[in-house]
Amino acid sequence: MITVVLSLGSNLGDREKHLRSAVRELGDSLLVVSGVYETPPWGDTDQAAYLNAVALVGEPGRNVEDWLAVAQALERSAGRERDPERRFGPRTLDVDLITATTADGEPVTRDTPDLVLPHPRTHLRAFVLRPWLEIQPYAKLPGHGWVYDLIREEPVASDVLEMTARPDISIES
């Protein structure tokens, strides 16, 4: 079975509801989900703060392309509309595939127009790395090293300080 780390984020509409619905729709494929973090926007700062979390999913028989389809379906279900003028603009729900791992612990890689694995900007994103570390303390990002080390290096270390844990929000189903 391939396991996949998914990044979940929302900054439009009912942010909590969008995250909670995505987790619920993952159903029995959900292995574990992190806590929720409120984070400043990344890449395009002229927008509201995000709620972010990370989920680990897996289901026998699904490949990474299947998981990409799941991620896109979750976004559509939340009413996501892509603005080609604002690549990192606001969104009801953003679901990214971060990494995928085989049952033998080998990383799955892809480099196609539709999917790049591991996600090429993960090593720069505190809003992914911090919650990921919560659910997989010994996580390793292929090509970049231990997640624990990545969150301690700049520019990520400064971004981690801007994050606020939100234990008052539970998105587990």
What does this structure look like?
The chain has a domain at 3-120: 7,8-Dihydro-6-hydroxymethylpterin-pyrophosphokinase HPPK (Alpha-Beta Plaits, 2-Layer Sandwich), CATH 3.30.70.560. Helix 1 (15-26) runs antiparallel to helix 2 (64-77). The protein is globular. The strands form three sheets. Strands 1, 2, 3, 4, 5 and 10 form a six-stranded antiparallel beta sheet that branches. A two-stranded antiparallel sheet has the order 6-7. A two-stranded antiparallel ribbon has the order 8-9. It has helices at residues 15-26, 64-77, 126-135, 147-150, 156-161, and strands at residues 3-10, 30-33, 37-39, 50-58, 94-101, 110-111, 116-117, 140-141, 145-146, 164-165. By secondary structure, it is α+β, with helices and mostly antiparallel strands.
